């Protein structure tokens, strides 16, 4: 409830006046001013080319997962982290549009036939939050068809924040199901943050079983793992 009220207040101010930069807190026409946008963190040169992880070897990509490629705007820190929190916890759609535009910049090599599928929330989480931040991000990415009803979350899972990599993979096993056959489709999953890769991998697995030809993902940020051993029990 508190997050909804903060988001409502932020939207009211943005409509009546201007947006407040999530970085420097100054008022202006954009939720992220140009000087702050120029400070976005960058991935290290040796980041994994497949998922932008920083560990060597990359625990997500040691074996071919059902997820073929991940596009990410920046590491999950600094300005990008604050922007994601503004969307996720304060309900600021203008920040979602800004992040979506940044995500679109990572997808210039993709054909327009790729279909955007936001990672769904459970009914309980959606009822608590009032919106799905992944759907908001997808709406900010132009040029691709959106299909938020192609994937469903079959059960509620507790927040994965603070859980280790193995816990994330076990906790999200079989948490997704395709809502329809997607034979031959090329699907681009949309989410806010990639950490262990469990959410996106299990979501991709469900879509592959439903006939998807290829599944990739785009996220606003890539969190960097601290463990070098891939999780067991996949």
Biggest sheet statistics: 4 strands, parallel
Q: Tell the overall outline.
A: globular
Structural class: alpha/beta
Task: Please give the radius of gyration in angstroms.
Answer: 17 Å
Q: Overall pLDDT, averaged?
A: 85
Poorly predicted ranges: 227-234
Notable features of this structure?
234 residues, alpha/beta, four-stranded parallel beta sheet, two-stranded antiparallel ribbon, 8 helices, globular, disordered C terminus
Summarize the structure.
The protein has 234 residues and is of the alpha/beta class.
Describe this structure in words.
The structure is a single chain. The protein is 32% helix and 16% strand. It is α/β, with parallel strands linked by helices and 234 residues long. The strands form 3 sheets. Strands 3-8-7-4 form a 4-stranded parallel β-sheet, sandwiched between helices. Helix 4 packs across helix 6 (133-139). It is globular, with a radius of gyration of 17 Å.
What topology emerges from the helices and strands here?
Elements: H1 2-16, E1 19-20, E2 27-28, H2 34-37, E3 70-75, H3 78-88, H4 93-105, E4 115-118, H5 123-129, H6 133-139, E5 151-153, H7 165-171, E6 176-178, E7 186-194, H8 198-209, E8 214-222
Parallel strand pairs: 3-8, 4-7, 7-8
Antiparallel strand pairs: 1-2, 5-6
